[in-house]
Amino acid sequence: MKAIAVLTSGGDAPGMNAGIRATVRTALTCGLSVFGVKRGYRGLIEDDLFQMRSTDVSNILQHGGTILHSARSEEFRTAEGRIIAANNLRNRKIDGLVVFGGDGSFRGANDLQREHGIRVVGIPATIDNDIWGSDYTIGFDTAVNTALEAIDKVRDTAAAHDRLFIVEVMGRHAGFIALEVGIGAGAEEILIPETVTQIPEICRKLQSRLDKGRTSSILVVAEGDEEGNAYDIAKKIEAQSGMKSRVTVLGHVQRGGSPTAADRMLATKLGYGAVKALLDDAAPCMVGVEDGSISRHPLADAWTRKKELDKLLVQLSSGLE
Ligand code: F6P
Q1: Cβ–Cβ contacts within 10 Å for residue 158, how many?
Q2: Most buried one in 13, 193, 245, 252, CB count within 10 A?
Q3: Residue 3 in contact with residue 50, Cβ under 8 Å?
Q4: What is the mean pLDDT of the chain?
Q5: pLDDT tens-place string over residues 240-299
Q6: What distance, in Å, lies between the first and last C-alpha atoms of the chain?
């Protein structure tokens, strides 16, 4: 292997830049040429690649977002799109590709290797933390801390006005963010797609707390909860109990900002691990960090295996009255 490319795909995640830096510098140290691809698979199809030097990744690790930009590409989902992408890589004699993203991005990478023999490695990067094979994904820790800081502020105003607040955090299909944010913020209720949300029971508990003199409450809801988003939950609670609430949707604020120390360490380990895997492995793989060590798993595990929530955290999420 003489040259590799790196791209970021899907939703951006704080720490991607630290990961790009580690990938580029590890590759250069190993004697490889490195190309950056702009806007994920879209840039791969449009041949928007540029050769990267060590200085191209100077002073980026502390910044959120991704210097390579990210996008979702419908065309890359087609065999025709992947032929164009593979030809663009071959024309530059690039035979390895590092993909930062989630399971959707990894599926595309897997197809690229299967159909065209371009060696690929996936790096789990999404604030949702819903990828099997790595204890954490790049961006999760930062997103949790961003949301915590916001909820601490909401708590002040909730207490001042004796109000019920419903705070929505990201997590279209998973409750990892809501669970850790809810516990960290001492939320009175945490609503996640993985557990059954019972509105009547929530109303009963809210009333019982009111009766005990706890005049303000915060509910944290994952956007993908089966009972709906924060506005839906607010309406259902009011319809069943008459209790009014204020809704705060944290949204994309959770995707930005300077990565935490934990995300910088994780991204640096994974960038390094991805280049080493490309040099060693023939099969498409994903690198992760499990129990502090870099691990490798078949790329397909990322979408065929389901990452479970921490059972103790789930227990704690409903246990502390
Ligand atoms: O990055 C993952 C995620 O944040 C989900 O939790 C969320 O539903 C989604 O991305 C929204 O992303 P976009 O607005 O970029 O489509």
Answers
A1: 21
A2: 13
A3: no
A4: 96
A5: 999 999 999 999 999 999 999 999 999 999 999 999 999 997 889 999 999 999 999 999
A6: 58
288 lines ligand 1 (CB under 6 A): no
The atom number, within ligand 1, closest to the CA of 177 reads: 6
- Cβ(171) – ligand 1 distance below 6 Å: yes
Q: How far is the CA of 320 from the centre of ligand 1 (A)?
A: 30
Query: pLDDT, tens digit, for every residue of 139-150?
Result: 999 999 999 999
All structural domains of the chain, each given as residue ranges with its CATH number in brackets, are 3-138+259-304 (3.40.50.450), 140-255 (3.40.50.460)
The alpha carbon of 15 and the centre of ligand 1 are apart by a number of angstroms equal to 16
Q: Which residues contact 299 (CB under 8 A, 6 or more apart)?
A: 106, 109, 110, 113, 120, 122, 283, 284, 285, 286
- Return the ligand 1 atom nearest residue 127 CA: 1
What pLDDT digit, counting tens, does each position of 111-129 carry?
A: 999 999 999 999 999 999 9
Q: Is the pTM of this model over 0.90?
A: yes
